[in-house]
Amino acid sequence: MLAAHDRFAIQDMIARYINSCDNFDQDDALTMVNDDGEIKLFVDGSDQPLLDLTGAAAFRDALAPRHAHHESIGVQVRHLMQNLELVRVSDDCAELRCQVLVLYQRQQNSQDPAPRPV
Questions:
Q1: Helix extents (H) in the chain
Q2: Do 99 and 41 meet the contact criterion of CB atoms below 8 Å apart?
Q3: Cβ-Cβ contacts under 8 Å for 25 (sequence gap 6 or more)
Q4: Residue 116 has pLDDT above 90, yes or no
Q5: Strands 51-54 and 75-89
Q6: pLDDT at residue 34 in the model
Q7: Beta pairing partners, 85
Q8: C-alpha dihedral sign at 96, 99, 104, 105
Q9: Could you tell me the sign of the dihedral formed by the alpha carbons of 25, 30, 32, 38, in that order?
Q10: What is the pLDDT, as a whole number, of residue 44?
Q11: pLDDT digits (tens, 9 = 90+) for 4-63
């Protein structure tokens, strides 16, 4: 059984990573990814990941253009993670599953508040 303080530490790290990404703080986000860190994004019950990244370099290469694109069109992204489940935990690895709601909002300095696809 995982100790409560370890569970909270894992959840805090995930929240910090998501907040760093949402705030375009790539440097902070990358401090939480090691060379064998993985993220796999499955959408709509698919058995094949839409996104499959391993290692800090892959994370950096994926984050930079997304951040640049969102900044260029004046959109702020927010990820709301729900139903966080720790599926497997070992001494150096935690596998989790959760639901993510992604919100896109216009930045305050945007001159055009009209909604549009991003």
A1: 4-22, 26-30, 56-72
A2: no
A3: none
A4: no
A5: unpaired
A6: 86
A7: 97
A8: negative
A9: positive
A10: 82
A11: 998 898 889 889 989 998 888 989 988 988 888 898 888 888 899 999 999 999 999 998
Contact, 93 vs 77, CB < 8 A?
no
CA 52 to each of CA 10, 26, 82, 91, 94: distance values in angstroms, whole numbers, following the listed order: 21, 18, 21, 23, 16
CATH number given to 4-106: 3.10.450.50
In 3D, which of 27, 41, 36, 32 has the Cα closest to residue 54? 36
pLDDT digits (tens, 9 = 90+) for 29-45: 889 888 888 988 888 88
Domain ranges of the chain: 4-106
Token output for 43: 């959408």
The span from the CA of 38 to the CA of 11, in Å, is 16
Amino acid found at 117: P
